[in-house]
Amino acid sequence: xxxxxxxxxxxxxxxxxxxxxxxxxxxxHFRDITxxxxxxxxxxQQALAFLTRYFxxxxxxxSTLERHEHAHAVIILRGEGEVILNDRVExxxxxxxxxxxxxxxxQFHATGExxxxxxxxxxxxxxxxxxPAEEDLERLRASPAVAKRLRG
Length: 152
Fold this sequence. Notes:
Blueprint: E1 10-11, E2 14-15, E3 21-22, E4 31-39, E5 50-62, E6 72-78, E7 80-85, E8 88-93, E9 97-100, E10 106-110, E11 116-123, H1 134-141, H2 144-151
Antiparallel strand pairs: 1-2, 3-4, 4-5, 5-11, 6-9, 6-11, 7-8, 7-10
């Protein structure tokens, strides 16, 4: 049996030999965000039932407002921001842990002067994200905090 265990080193919030990719390749419902898949994507890591990804949102940027059937585990590594979790907006900072339950609307915003960087762990097998329909946006905007953030 060949040895496949390994260490991937980080330098400046970039990991050696891990491609830096666009967050998504189409759409205009996100801004200034990149991702690196750190574990679970490589052929020699197929034993993992999950993917560990690092997302970095530049100041003023944000991820897509979306929901899915699968849950997420998110750990903030650096920066400050806000996350929409259904009908509320919560502040997040380095070392905060965020559990995103199935079918929860969520969106991360970088609000500080530094990038908002976070690890996101998801099941390898998962459903595709759903974007909000107009009626979903109306319900979300019923919360003043969410409405204020969605204007940005």
